[in-house]
Amino acid sequence: MSQNQRQTTNDQRLKRGLFITGTDTGVGKTHITCLLAQQLLGAGFTPIPRKPVESGCSPDASGQLIAADAQALMQACQYAQPQSVVCPYPLQAAISPAEAARLQGETIRLEQLQQACALTVDDQKNPDTRLLVEGAGGFYSPLCEDGLNGDLAQRLGLPVLLVAEDKLGCINHILLSLQAIESRGLEVFAVVLNQINPASSAMNNAAELRQLIAHPLIHTPGQQADVLSASLIGQF
């Protein structure tokens, strides 16, 4: 196989999955990713979680930092590998990963995070493997010493699932985020409008957004189990 053919094969494997980002922190990325993982499992896929860096981690009795989001993803994906495979860079301070790393005296770079998202040889061979990479914070939030979430997404080249909280002002945040994602030459797989506060059900954000964007829009009231429609699952 030529080098170009090998590169094409690797690119195809890499694109079997999603980069999950948000309009902000606290919009429910992990919750949505867990629901998506469970749905993919039910459809016969093998979801592989990656949360390469996570701040706000708490130490256990032995002093090891536990990455709660990464642990939730591992459970949802039924992924049996250790936390260090999913999240090799847990950080304690509940601030941006870039700043949290500096406080711990660590230097984390994009190249390291990109390598952390790589599939194992066995996962690459499995045609049902789907890589789910969850970022930290919003698309333009600082992620490491030399890059933002958007920089990692661009390096990975995965289609992007954008999660936003269904609340007042979210339309502006969604449109700005979509513009940023597309400016990086990335495919927007879908937008998830995540209803965290039941009071937001009185708003018409979903209806307004459907008039403003051409991307698939998923509205998830409450603890809805199926994040993706059958047609979107088919695109995996």
What does it look like?
There is one protein chain. This protein is of the alpha/beta class and 236 residues long. 40% of the residues lie in helices and 22% in strands. It has eleven helices and twelve strands. It has a six-stranded parallel sheet, sandwiched between helices. Strands 3-6 form a two-stranded parallel ribbon. The protein is globular. It starts with a helix and ends with a helix.
Q: Tell me the strand percentage band.
A: 15-25%
Class computed from helices, strands and strand pairing:
alpha/beta
Radius of gyration: 17 Å
- Distance from N terminus to C terminus (CA atoms, Å) equals 26 Å
Overall mean pLDDT: 89
Backbone shape:
globular
List the helices and strands and how they pair.
Blueprint lengths: L2 H12 L2 E6 L6 H14 L3 E5 L2 E2 L3 E2 L5 E2 L1 H10 L5 H4 L2 E2 L6 H7 L6 H7 L4 H5 L3 E10 L3 E3 L2 E2 H8 L3 E6 L4 H14 L4 E8 L9 H8 L4 E5 L8 H5 L2
Parallel strand pairs: 1-7, 1-10, 2-7, 3-6, 10-11, 11-12
Antiparallel strand pairs: 4-5, 8-9
